[in-house]
Specification:
The complex is a heterodimer of chains A (about 110) and B (about 120). With about 110 residues, chain A is an all-beta fold. Chain A is built from no helices and nine strands. Chain B has about 120 residues and is an all-beta fold. Chain B is built from no helices and eleven strands. Chains A and B meet through strand 3, strand 7 and strand 8 of A and strand 5 and strand 10 of B.
Chain lengths: ~110, ~120
């Protein structure tokens, strides 16, 4: 059971938009920055979004992040087949004194 | 270019020990916290341990507390994870990651597979 809650899967057609939610509490999302990670099949995770809504260099602006209270959302527009991957939210939990992740969301581009 | 290269993975019997290493390059090692994250076969990411940039603070998931230790060698720019009393449920790919204020894991290694089995 993960500390952060994500939907197990989402799907959408190429070119469409999808959002992935991440729900937590005041000890994690509510008082810390949220990051999002993309894990393509058979590869290591890669940082996609940090500090709730910032994109590292090289990440296209099709990817966006937002946070409100104890929840965060990853948005992906103009879906491509290459976006098929597992997506994880993560942050620091001040009560646990550790990093916490969501259970991951598998994105299928139909 | 930031590079993180894990080594030391392998097959170990239950109750045994293993030490993972993570050689870091491309950044000032002493300026950043580091973390270990693992992923059991077919499962999601599980944070394991973190160490501050100075090495003075260490953090562990409850699942490994008392069995794993984390350390770093600044002369070798290397991060370590000493794993003792290993269990079948510790079987996973272990990733080391460069951290920014522990909240952002901005670079990840390719992972090292640890298999605990008799």
């Amino acid at each position: 059971q993960s500390v952060l809650t994500q939907p197990p899967s989402v799907s959408a057609a190429p070119g469409q938009k999808v959002t992935i939610s991440c729900s937590g509490s005041s000890s994690n999302i509510g008082n810390n920055y949220v990051s999002w990670y993309q894990q393509l099949p058979g590869t290591a995770p890669k940082l996609l979004i940090y500090d709730n809504n910032k994109r590292p260099s090289g990440i296209p602006d099709r990817f966006s992040g937002s946070k409100s209270g104890t929840s965060a959302t990853l948005g992906i527009t103009g879906l491509q087949t290459g976006d098929e991957a597992d997506y994880y939210c993560g942050t620091w939990d001040s009560s646990l004194s550790g990093v916490v992740f969501g259970g991951g969301t598998k994105l299928t581009v139909l | 270019e930031v590079q993180l290269l894990e080594s030391g993975g392998g097959l170990v019997h239950p109750g045994g020990s293993l030490r993972l290493s993570c050689a870091a390059s491309g950044f000032t090692f002493s300026n950043y916290a580091m973390s270990w994250v693992r992923q059991a076969p077919g499962k999601g990411l599980e944070w394991v341990s973190a160490i501050s940039n100075s090495g003075g603070s260490t953090y562990f998931a409850d699942s490994v507390k008392g069995r794993f230790t984390i350390s770093r060698d600044y002369s070798k720019n290397t991060l370590y994870l000493q794993m003792n009393s290993l269990r079948a449920e510790d079987t996973a790919v272990y990733y080391c990651a460069k951290a920014v204020m522990h909240q952002r894991l901005d670079y990840w290694g390719q992972g090292a597979l640890v298999t605990v089995s008799s």
